[in-house]
Amino acid sequence: MKIYLALPILLLLGLSYTGVAQNDFPIEVEYEVNKVYPPLSIGKAGLQEVQTLLDLNKHYKAAWIREYLSVEVVTIQGGKIRKALGENERFNAAQKELMANADVHEDIVVNVQYIPENTLKHNDPKDLSFAVSINPEKEAAFPGGEAALLSYLKSNAIDKIPEGTFKGYALTAIQFTVDEEGRIIDAQTFWPSENEKIDKLLLETICNMPNWEPAQYANGRKVRQDLALTVGNMENCAVNMINIGKGPASN
Question: Could you please report the per-residue DSSP string of 99-131?
Answer without folding.
Answer: HHTS-TTS-EEEEEEEEE-S--SS---EEEEEE
